[in-house]
Amino acid sequence: MIKIPFNKPALTGNELRYIKDAVDSGKISGDGGFTKKCQEFLEKKFNAGKVLLTTSGTGALEMSALLIDIQPGDEVIMPSYTFVSTANAFILRGAKPVFIDIREDTLNLDEKLIEEKITDRTRAIIPVHYAGVSCELDTIMDIARKRNFWIVEDAAQGITSRYKDKYLGTVGDLGAFSFHETKNVICGEGGALLVNNEDLRERAEIIWEKGTNRKKFFRGEVDKYTWIDIGSSYLMSDVLAAYLYAQLENLEKIQNKRKEIYNYYIQNLQELEREGKIRLPVVPEDCETNYHLFYILLPDREKRDSLLRRLRAAGIHAVFHYVPLHVSPMGERFGYRPGDLPLTESLSERLIRLPLFYDLSLDEAEFIIAMVKKHINRS
Q1: Of the candidates 211, 232, 249, which is a domain's last residue?
Q2: Are residues 262 and 243 part of one domain?
Q3: Which residues contact 328 (CB under 8 A, 6 or more apart)?
Q4: Which of 229, 249, 269 is the last residue of a domain?
Q5: What angle, 0 to 180 degrees and rounded to 10, lies between the N-to-C axes of helices 57-67 and 201-208?
Q6: Which of 164, 181, 206, 226 shows the greatest Cβ crowding within 10 Å of its Cβ?
Q7: Phi and psi for 123 in degrees, rounded to 5?
Q8: Same domain, residue pair 230 and 329
Q9: Residue 172: inside a domain, yes or no?
Q10: pTM for the structure as a whole
Q11: Cα 3 to Cα 244: distance, rounded to the nearest angstrom
């Protein structure tokens, strides 16, 4: 029986009251009052030119593929160690995902391997900021600017994280946040598209509004709205935006609690790392994490699986993470095979994510740590 879940959605105070306020307003569909409040908050907080709330992080990535006009046969460079949405958003437009291996320290795409994967069909690079730790963006941006590629940041896990003095999601042409219930700031299902390239902002509104110029109509810029371009229904319900706004109001409080738990894990598991029994997360000096998740790396898959079983037997729901996309059935359809990305395959087989959520107590974290130490020291 699970005593400590892997995740528990947070309530920080005003979520239910704001949902009632949204219902009482008579406007619970997209682009309502709470949607506007959330977008304004995110634009101001992250110094982002335009933010559009979406139905999911997946939706934000799909909008990105539409905005940069991905066509059949185009190639998009990305890591294999990511969620399926990173690839699907571009595959839906007919693109081929070009997977590259990840770095051993951060588990982010290895920027040194990008150049060798570039062809005359390459259109974009998708840096995925794993665990809220930034990719090496200076190098990636330099490559993109020299060759006129688009950069779409998959910052689903990266809200409030920074690379040097910039927030993740605001560096590339476009950035995608997720507000899924497993993320730091949540509304069940939701996301946001950060439109950093000014040339894309007007079209982003049109795609967001099902391909119409409805936003211009409501601003009084046209006397009626009509079908202008391709698009879809990407607007988040204002009920979800109401929940999200309550979370954003408590963003600092949420982050501080996650930081406390994350640092508690680090402090109490360092001895195992010094003894060479595990490896803890690495945060480069020029990166600031948001404490999205906490993982440990075991020496091999057998030890990883053994620890997972022991933790679950103790009532602790720890999990592994992604199955690399290139070794999935869909990846094989694009011609990839096991052995193509050796670091990705090795690291993914040795990783365990420990519970980390807003309501996790330090007593519970202490119990988790004790079970990890007990099993590893005994094995």
Answers
A1: 249
A2: no
A3: none
A4: 249
A5: 120
A6: 206
A7: -120, -25
A8: no
A9: yes
A10: 0.96
A11: 27
**pLDDT single digits (tens) 147-191:** 999 999 999 999 999 999 999 999 999 999 999 999 999 999 999
The residue whose two tokens read 């507000």 is 179
User: What is residue 2's predicted lDDT score, i.e. its pLDDT?
Assistant: 77
Between CA 120 and CA 84 the distance in angstroms is 25
Residues 121, 142, single domain; the answer is yes
Q: Are 229 and 65 in contact (CB under 8 A)?
A: no
Reading the block at residue 107, the tokens are 């588990």
Residue 217 confidence (pLDDT) = 85
Is 184 within 8 Å of 159 (Cβ atoms)? Answer: yes
Nearest CA to 262 out of 285, 231, 237, 294 is that of 294
233, with CB counted inside 10 A (0-12, 13-18, 19+), is: exposed
SS3 333: helix
SS3 8: coil
Strands (E), the chain: 50-54, 75-79, 96-100, 122-125, 150-154, 162-163, 166-167, 174-178, 191-195, 287-288, 294-297, 351-354
- Residue 284 neighbours by CB under 8 Å, 6+ apart: 105, 106, 133, 134, 136
State both tokens at 362: 């330090």
- The confidence score (pLDDT) of residue 220 equals 87
Q: Which residues of the chain have pLDDT under 70?
A: none
Query: What is the C-alpha to C-alpha distance for residues 161 and 258, in angstroms, rounded to an integer?
Result: 13
Tokens of 13: 């105070």
Output the pLDDT for position 240: 98
Instruction: Give the count of beta carbons closer than 10 Å to the beta carbon of residue 8.
Output: 14
